[in-house]
Amino acid sequence: MNNNSFFQGIKAGTSIAIGYFPVALTFGLLAKTSGLSIIEATAMSMFVYAGAAQYISLTLIAKSVDPILIVLNTFVVNIRHFLMTAALNEKMQSEKRWVKGIYAFGITDESFSVLATQKEDKIRTPFAFGVAFIAYASWVIFTAVGHVIGANLPAFLQAAMSIALYAMFVGLLVPSMRGNRKVVMLALIAAVINGFFYWTDLLSTGWAILVATLASSILVEIIYAKRDRNLPKGA
User: Fold this and answer.
1) What confidence tens digit (pLDDT) does each residue in 64-121 have?
2) Which of these, 60, 50, 7, lies nearest to 27 by C-alpha position?
3) Which of 73, 109, 139, 158 is the most buried (most CB within 10 A)?
């Protein structure tokens, strides 16, 4: 492995590690208040390594949702990674499949952005490993640190932190909604569908989230596909 390329990758991914600090720290803290042990919380960050999906999983775990449904929800939330890694594969240097499989595990929205914007015609494998390594290490380490901090908070603050989970979702959603009608429509439709299942008790929490996510995505794409077909050419 070219050590120089590897350390260049670490340098390029340092900004990701810094950005992960507050998010992973908060996840570890919330994992503690949700009842997960430090081993369970850290293991989730090590083996799942999917920020938004891990936050969603905390809610589902707290409600004792069937593990199969948690896996399915995680799959739906992270299905975009199929497209991201497929696109990135075109920019990577030729390598054995098992090697690509290893660094592909470390591809997140942030690491994809760093790798996809590289100016080189072909990105070296050690560079990709460097970016993935620093981001992954940051997420796992700060998860554990956050759990330790959560364990030392007073009991009333630990209980209050359950509200922070919903605040985190709002904080992630609102910036994406600004100036983007599609995201606003997606969020509103998903909320209505999930609310319907919640108030009618037709579906459990896990299935309600899964169905709301898929249904809202399909409906929004149908609406926008019809709109694009009706637009005058060149508009």
Assistant:
1) 888 888 888 888 888 888 888 888 888 888 888 898 888 889 988 888 888 888 888 8
2) 50
3) 139
